[in-house]
Design a protein that fits this description.
Order of helices and strands of chain A: HEEHEHEHHEEHEEHEH
Oligomer: homodimer
Helix content of chain A: 25-40%
Strand content of chain A: 15-25%
Largest sheet of chain A: 4 strands, antiparallel
Chain lengths: ~280, ~280
């Protein structure tokens, strides 16, 4: 699958993460608009040809063989660019026979902004809602092929997956902390959090979905604070996958009380050229 | 001056900082070994042709029109590479008629490792020591041209200039803090520090000369601690010039208790190619 994307000129594959429990993979690739669009279309065609939704099951909810396609603006691109690109991709994938639901910043209506709502109930949930005018696909047929499913295409800021390991094995502490810090519990904006047990330790597992609203250090300090109320502390943390440079700069600015810290201040940014497309 | 360096193929000029009080400029440029060597030689020739040491005075000690030439290993280069390059540069500049003193990791003897010792007394001090066998130049003539002076050529790790502004205007507090945290006061290794008054605030001005020995967060926490003993705290900080990515990653690892954080985890490092020379 990765190969068909890598083969597109101007596309740079940044990573592939496959999870056996979820029975799901996440492929990350970057490039200029047209290249990334071509990569997405190539990926969708390959998924339709090689995967069978009816034969797939796993821990993670899903509604299609290409389940979700988020466009994230990087250097020099704006959210408006990403939204426009998501709509072009939606149109393309619709022509390939996928029912397409726009979400995130690309959503056509506010009830469709959040991915968990668009995908609620997975394939079966989507199938049940197809007749509801509120849940008509934005592109493609208003009927589902059980081997292919539907796809959510969106535009959103970069997401950081960040886990905090507590110095206790009591998963209830992690759950309580997660409930307190996450947005849906009245906590920090643009933070999703779960309490899990990983390797015998309680872990607060977070998705930071908008670093301008809640940067990593703010999330961590909230976890430390909430954990302390339960007599626990954060022993260590980890980033899952990639983080943008800005997240690291935000972190340094926060803890060092730096008056400013921009990519320009980082020596290596002055050494590299953005590759020609 | 910058133009003759910029004109060398394969050289990338990273910055020029000129200080009117010091009457001194610092030019930073990078590239592969041969390119950087050519840039250094071009710079030395231009300095000899266009500057006159006998006509120059300023706040900062100096011994030559090209006063100091440190080589710093970046990506893929080792300290051994930098030392070897410093010696090649020394040989070249010696042939141009500069007395050359190797310092830092390139020093031929331990008493010449530290730049302040090599340059002690500026031009006059160097002139007075020329007859001393301990202070013979490593390359070039054992006599000084008063219009050109001498040059210190060395190899060292990247240096970070980092200032902490205190919430007091009392410069004595900054001086006491500086004395406590700097290496020469029995404090942190590879840290030079001064207490200054800048814009009505007390400032602890630091040079971190080896981030593996003392990273930025360790230096800052020592300043915070020492300042607290004087009833003061750090209001804000600033980086002067560039910092390597590793310094920012160290900072994030320290405060976030990250199990690991490498350049590979930073998305932008995966987008850029190192330019061809």
């Amino acid at each position: 699958m990765t190969e068909v994307v890598r083969a597109v000129p101007g596309v740079r594959v940044l990573g592939l993460h496959s999870d056996p429990d979820h029975n799901r993979s996440v492929l990350t690739f970057a490039g200029e608009e047209d290249a990334v669009l071509s990569g997405a279309v190539a990926l969708a065609k390959a998924c339709a040809a090689e995967l069978d939704l009816a034969a797939q099951s796993g821990e993670h909810p899903r509604m299609g063989v290409l389940d979700v396609l988020p466009f994230v603006p990087l250097e020099g691109a704006t959210m408006e660019d990403a939204v426009r690109l998501a709509r072009r991709a939606g149109e393309n994938l619709g022509s390939l026979g996928f029912p397409v639901f726009l979400y995130g910043a690309a959503a056509a209506a506010s009830h469709r902004r959040k991915l968990p709502h668009v995908r609620r109930g997975g394939y079966e949930g989507v199938a049940a809602r197809l007749e509801d005018p509120l849940w008509k696909p934005d592109y493609g047929p208003a009927m589902l092929d059980p081997h292919k499913g539907a796809v959510a295409v969106g535009a959103r800021p970069i997401l950081v997956a960040f886990n905090a390991f507590l110095d206790t094995g009591d998963v209830e502490v992690a759950r309580a902390v997660a409930r307190q810090v996450r947005e849906s519990g009245g906590g920090l904006r643009a933070v999703r959090a779960l309490g899990l047990r990983v390797g015998g330790k309680a872990q607060v597992s977070m998705n930071l979905t908008d670093l301008e609203q809640t940067p990593i250090p703010v999330a961590l300090e909230a976890v430390r604070s909430a954990a302390a109320k339960h007599g626990a502390s954060v022993e260590s943390t980890e980033l899952v996958g990639l983080a943008p440079l800005e997240a690291i700069l935000q972190t340094a600015r926060y803890y060092l009380a730096l008056r400013e810290l921009e990519p320009d201040h980082v020596l290596e940014t002055r050494l590299y050229d953005v590759p020609e497309s």
